[in-house]
Write a structure and sequence with these properties.
heterotrimer, A mainly alpha (307), B alpha/beta (457), C alpha/beta (405), A: 307 residues, MetI-like fold, 12 helices, C: 405 residues, alpha/beta, 4-stranded antiparallel sheet, 18% strand, binds adenosine-5'-diphosphate, binds iron/sulfur cluster, binds magnesium ion
Amino acid sequence: MVEAAARRPPASSPSGPLAIRVRRFGEITKEVLRNPTTTIGLVIIASLLLMALMAPIITEANTPDAYQMPRDWGAINEPPGTPGHLLGTTSTGGDVLYGVVWGARTSLRLSVIVVGITMVVGTIMGSIAGFIGGKVDEIIMRLVDVLLAIPELIFALAIAAVLGPSFGNIIFALTVVFWVKYARIIRGQIIHVKHNEYVDSARVIGDSKLNIYRKDVLPNSVTPVVVQATLDMGNIVLVAATLSFIGLAEAGLAEWGVLVSEGQAGISAGRWWASTIPGAMVFLWALAFNLFGDGLRDVLDPRTEGR
Amino acid sequence: MTNLRDDPVGAATRAEERPVITLRGVKKYFPVREGVLQQIVGHVRAVDGVSFEIRQGQTLGLVGESGCGKTTLGRCIAGLTDTTGGGIYFRLSEADRMFLDEMDAVGQDRQTSEQQAKVESIERAHRIDRLKGETWRTYRRNCQFVFQDAFSSLNPRHLVKDIVGRPLRVYKEASGTDLTERVVELLESVGLGRQHLYRYPHQFSGGQRQRISIARALALDPEFIVLDEPTSALDVSVQSQILNLLHKLQQDRGLTYLFITHDLGVVRLMSDEIVVMYVGEVMERAGAQELFASPRHPYTEALLAANPDLLEGDEEAEMRGLEGTVPDPARPPRGCKFHTRCPVATPRCGWEVDDAVAWLSDNSTILEGLGGVERSSDFESVLRFAEPGTAAEAESLLASAAIPDAMRAALVELDQDGPELRIRFEEVDRVRLEDVDVGHMTSCILHTSQADLDSRP
Amino acid sequence: MTAPAAAPLSDKTASRVASVEELRIHFDTKAGRLHAVDGVSFDIFDGESLGLVGETGCGKSVTARSFLRLIPVPPGTYAGGRIHFWSKEARQTGGSPVDLLQVPASQMRDIRGNRIAMIFQDPGKALNPALSIREQVAEVFYQHRSEDLLDGWNGTPPRPIRRAAGQRSGKLEWLAFKVPPLRSPARRLRKRVDDLVGDALAETQIPNPRKIMTSYPHELSGGMKQRVMIAQALACNPDLLIADEPTTALDVTIQARIMELIRELQLRHQTSVLYISHDLSLVRRICDRIAVMYAGRIAEIGQTRHVFHDPLHPYTRGLLAAIPSLAHQRGELAVIDGTVPELIDPQPACRFHTRCSYATDLCGRLDPPLVARPGLRPVACHGYASPDELGVAADQLPRLDRDAP
Ligand SMILES: Nc1ncnc2c1ncn2[C@@H]1O[C@H](COP(=O)(O)OP(=O)(O)O)[C@@H](O)[C@H]1O
Ligand SMILES: Nc1ncnc2c1ncn2[C@@H]1O[C@H](COP(=O)(O)OP(=O)(O)O)[C@@H](O)[C@H]1O
Ligand code: SF4
Ligand code: SF4
Ligand SMILES: [Mg+2]
Ligand SMILES: [Mg+2]
């Protein structure tokens, strides 16, 4: 009577729930690493994070505020390779290496805060809209549509105009803008997922709405959000750099966009390093997260996952 | 696999069993929305007044072509979809049902206040959309559902243990190792085992997934299970495993099934009683043997002719199909819903203007010259053509021997007046399901008292 | 593999339309090499309808698609075998067949749709949603029947018209068709196409073909779309029609109509049909012969009546017994234990031995070839071999005559 074996029996049957979850994580990791471009992305991300974490070790932290560029007025416009200023200095005596390393920290802080907040807010709003539906859905989605219609840059400019230029305001502006995307994604996913028969199955056994949301709907809806968050970790740094480049952040901040803006005047005089190196960092950061995010999307795609 | 069942029990003894589920005129309409404003422009009558009861320990087979409302009805019964009209009752006694029927016949305004109070108390105790608290939980536990698509009915991120154990957790019946043991027992009862506890659904074949679904449905030891095409997605050799399993479980646990399928062979094998549906309505209802031995509805006959393997006797019998397509449930035909395809339709079967228009459109090019239709009812309207000549041509076509005899006979008025053509068909009521034998009902007027004797072909 | 060179599979002397020999089609997958079709041989005779039945995944569609070389390569590979095909001329003149797996691409284009036509399970996917029914059916005539389009012309039609009939007109010519002197011949061509398309549709008993011609696929029901597909497939009067589960997506009453229709058209046009289905009771109604397929192999092949009344292969026996029928009691359907084996790098063993209740040790190490033994139709099971044939002791052979345990 028994169908002897599953179509694809696991090679070594794991013994318990923990083992199988670990194994699954291992499988996904292996799958991710199978793709060389994803692996490259992951390696760059790891190096950038390592650099950000070790910032106080690589360079001596500026006091009182480590995120302000230290100024060495005795060494302006030094080219890369100068002893003590490995990557050269800017026209205001800022050490480019310091800017690169602490800029990575700034970027990390920025993207973690913005992505963290927007992902949570977006997921909550999108879930309410998608899972409850009806009037609530309509109201939230109207708001989302309005916010989506405003371009990020213009929105940030407006906020800067009202609150004055500061990096804190950039974070604020990006947070206000970016949650909308997540709300949209998760709502679409939930509306799709909630028509799956496993949701009906949970209703038939009489489980509560909250449990159904928690166990069935949300876990099967978050994949694209995770992918989007990975991509945004990169994109947000790019947008923030643009904003600080046009002067919406405080001058002297150890931030790549600010450095590029400071250094650009020297390019015509052949002093490429002060702007090109931080610019390359922005590019590298955005590229790495995009490479990794794309790879992750392929692996986590529900159509290919687990088949 | 041993057969635990002795000789099939006669239909007469079965009728003594108490009903577990009673349907009284159940309707489910889905709104059809259109345009930017999403305005409701009509309703899909997925289920349109269905009544029957499912008795303790029996299998009621629900059969019909896709889109006829089987799944919708099953979902209504399981409380997954609310109904538009009528009532679904749990453990409604025969006496109470008769009382409710009687009260419906009397009409609400003419009931005495005691009668009204009694109706109210019966409904509160049995009608599933009015159950509250503990009684609702009792129903919820006792009515389970097995879906057609075993892949999408299992959460891909849950382990088998969590899927099958979930009902036990929800009702706090077991936890820890006790839960695991209960799940193992359930898995073993459906032919799986301990080795399957910690696997994901995608690691199983279609048949095994359906076993997991069944194990989950059994977890709360329910009285009644809706099986919505449980084997339609499976290959024959696996289907037979699942069908045998379902039978064994029914024997062991005294389960009551609503078995939904479009496969006549399966429904014949699995059911005690069969209900044949077409476009949201019941066409015929009879004991399984009886329905196959002496069908009393042309639609049932057509289904059988398309599956000649199931007919006694000549095994080389030709298979025969039906012309035409299933009507749009948003605009179902009048009278008998089957009349647009019925090979033996009579003039009293519900011919209407749409039929004439459909016939003209299928058999001529006349309608290209049609300017508009002015409809005063489904049975009467004026077709306005661009040219008087076309109207005359349409008139002669509709009067000719080319159109089906029954339709022509039902045409009581056909008047051409310049470019206008007035057509009027005999107006008829909706057909009713009537008893023709013990436990055998049909809605075909040829088999019931609804037909004029002289209009029989 | 132990399968010997294809033995003559039938004593029938009728001429053949196609002959599949030792066809092997493999797919490269993550898990390994999947032997989807692994040594399949059968003949299709002139004017017959051959049913190819088996459960999901046994390789029916892959076999069918390889006739027209529609297997995606990669991941697929044509790992071996031949598909000989005799066109009408070759059959009449006793000419030699072509090997469909070897013919050049240009010749294959001509064979597709013209000599061999195919209809699929899902007509919705096979029809182009953006083109009207007229355009889709007309396409076939333009592609393969441009001479027919010019039938009945006095003398040679103007060159632009000839080009139009072969769908080779340029933009400028299309403009020229709108004005004299080319306007009236262009109209005439168009009318000719309309007539042919209308006739093709009418043949499939579509009501009011002229009206259907102007509609788009989404406006038609599933049964109607399948009729359009059939009209398209038969428009060129092909030598071989391959129907891959053409009614699986349809309702029973409509399915029965479509099957009648295919049968009727087949008899009228004397087309040979390869009819693929997972449903034995359907195939039984319209096929002259049946080939039962299991896990990439043919298990047995023979006259429909014989296969149904006296199934030889244990798999066929199990399959037939598993169909709910009048003879069954509830709970007593026969079952075939287990599931279909993995097709990845299969061992030399009977593909059915893990599920076969007659299996002996021998079945697990020796692959039974599909051979016709004296007095029997072709079947791939050791139970019909003699000890000498395999060089083993008699007690090692499975004994099929005993009752299933
Ligand atoms: N959620 C829904 N919204 C709108 N129409 C629906 C919905 N569910 C089913 N229907 C319609 O109701 C009819 C009956 O469907 P269903 O009950 O699924 O039929 P069956 O199970 O017999 O194939 C169909 O015409 C279908 O399109
Ligand atoms: N494009 C493909 N890539 C990989 N495997 C394939 C592909 N097409 C078919 N297969 C495999 O070949 C086997 C036979 O498939 P198919 O011929 O479609 O079966 P069926 O008998 O149901 O028509 C299956 O195991 C299927 O997974
Ligand atoms: S009432 Fe009977 S005869 Fe009339 S259309 Fe319906 S099924 Fe046919
Ligand atoms: S008896 Fe042996 S050779 Fe014949 S089908 Fe069974 S396993 Fe295969
Ligand atoms: Mg259904
Ligand atoms: Mg197939």
